[in-house]
Amino acid sequence: MHIFAYLVLVIYTLALTYITVYCLFQFNLLYFYKKGHQHPFEEKKKQYNTGKQLVAAGMDTDDTKTELAPFVTIQLPIFNEMYVVERLIDNITQFDYPKDRFEIQVLDDSTDQTVEISRAKVEEYQAKGFQISLLHRTDRKGYKAGALKEATKVAKGEFIAIFDADFLPKPDFLNQTIPYFDNPEVGVVQTRWEHINEDYSLITKLQALQLNVHFRVEQSGRMFGKQMLQFNGTAGVWRKKAIEDAGGWEADTLTEDLDLSIRAQLKGWKIRFLEQIGSPAELPIEMNSLKSQQFRWMKGGAETARKMLPTIWKSDLNFKHKIYSTIHLLASSIFLFVFVAGVFSVPLLFSLGELFNVGFDKNFFGYFLVGLLSVIIIYYVANVQAELQPGESPIGKMLKFVLLFPLFLSLSMGLSLHNSIAVLQGFRGKRSPFIRTPKFNIKSINDSISSKNYLSKKISWTTIFEGVLALYFLFAVIGAIYLKNTTFIVFHLMLFIGYAGIFYYTLKVPRVR
After folding, report:
1. How far is residue 16's CA from residue 22's CA, in Å, rounded to a whole number?
2. Three-state secondary structure along 237-300?
3. What are the domain boundaries of the chain?
4. Contacts for 139-142 with beta carbons within 8 Å, 24 or more apart?
5. From the candidates 108, 109, 166, 259, which is the catalytic residue?
6. pLDDT single digits (tens) 307-355
7. Which residue in 108, 164, 166, 257 is the catalytic one?
């Protein structure tokens, strides 16, 4: 029995150690983030004049626009997005950029009526003088990466802006981003995601907490720390030459954006992240959509790590940057260790009495609280300090954070089984199709979906197991009360809430108008 107790303790401690080390590396990004904001980059940027601005200045627009504005190709990869495709194309045509200096490629691989909606919109704007075309494939070879690869072959632009179907970039997007390419080393300019429907539900509010950390602390921290960062697949602009130099889009991972980002940076190209420029987008509103997105991100991250880590360690990067890049690419594996720590904490609870008899001190676990403290500070900075708007009450923002953050931790723990499966499949090299995240044109708390199209109707074994784990951790909470040992009771209560919440929201059907 002693051997079992020690084995459980060792496994739990190793998982907790990995989690703590990862959290401290995240805290290191916060250090670079704060330091970078004290000494931000100073760059002289020019603005590309639109036709209206030139007319107001008494200038001839015909030739001046051509001289001032580089030609840009805007790519809109779409698959079965009947609810948002019109909104997307209408939005892109509102760009405050010379109309003769950009083209729009609608990359629609849809198998439903989305294709006809796209075709009608393309014809409408062609009649209005826009350089817009529909590129429709029937085989979906390579999924999104394949569509981008084929379209880039015929793209006329020196720069390529990419937007997923749920994004609504602001009219000045190109005027705000293209000037950063004056630096010939910049291969990518990435903007920060904003959230159209953040307040729609508890699920969207919790997603926003996590994404705000990535699009403030992580991306900016890596940039200011001169580490590798990433293009996020949308709401950014590539220099076409950088895509070609890095070998082009490849479809052997589910995160083709991260893969190409790493390859481009190993070729010497830099990624410029613009925290100050937000690109609004729609968050998934129901759990199955969120799960499909998480699965793609987690599995794709593991696939990219499996593919690119050997290349990184053979590269000319210095040792410190190889370590940073490794931690970055292994980020999705954190869920494996969260899952292991949770599962093994229950038998450890019932083994503590035996361990106490041989002199084990439970205060040993207190050292690992430094990881939790780091996470709390990071999320506070990204969601309270950085998000505070002029005139907004800091007390109200703080109260909202205090209420949501524990639920966010619980949700993350509850997703650890689902995400661990994705990570293991990625490391094993198991192939799976690119499952896009459906969007429903949800903008406010009063909106609801117009039909159940695109909603998953299957209950997977993973969902059933999540329900079983909720009962498992409820048993642990009851067991702690019975044993009068509250060492893990808060941890187990959060795990119960997390798994029960994931199980409930997976089965819950969104309201239909």
Report:
1. 10
2. EEEHHHHHHCCCCCCCCCCHHHHHHHHHHHCCCEEEEEEEEEEEECCCCCHHHHHHHHHHHHHH
3. 51-204+230-287
4. 140/79, 140/109, 141/251, 142/249, 142/251
5. 109
6. 999 999 999 999 999 999 999 999 999 999 999 999 999 999 999 888 7
7. 257
pLDDT tens for each residue of 253-287 = 999 999 999 999 999 999 999 999 999 999 999 99
Is residue 109 annotated as part of the catalytic site, yes or no?
yes
Q: What are phi and psi of 73, to 5 degrees?
A: -100, 130
- Spatial separation of the C-alpha atoms in residues 400 and 219, rounded to whole Å: 24
The token pair that represents 101 in the structure block: 């200096």
Give CA–CA dist 331/305, Å, rounded.
9
> CB of 255 within 8 A of CB of 161?
no
SS3 106: strand
In terms of pLDDT, which residue wins out, 365 or 68? 365
Which amino acid is residue 404, in one-letter code? L
Whose tokens are 């051509």? That residue is: 66
Q: Is 163 helix (H, G, I), strand (E, B) or coil?
A: coil
Three-state DSSP state, 412: helix
Confidence of residue 61 (pLDDT cuts 50, 70, 90): very low
Do 34 and 216 meet the contact criterion of CB atoms below 8 Å apart?
A: no
Inter-residue contact 174 to 72 (CB < 8 Å): yes
Q: Which of these CATH numbers, 1.20.120.530, 3.90.550.10, 1.25.40.20, 3.40.1390.20, describes 51-204+230-287?
A: 3.90.550.10
CA distance readout (Å), 423 to 57, 169, 224, 419: 56, 31, 29, 6
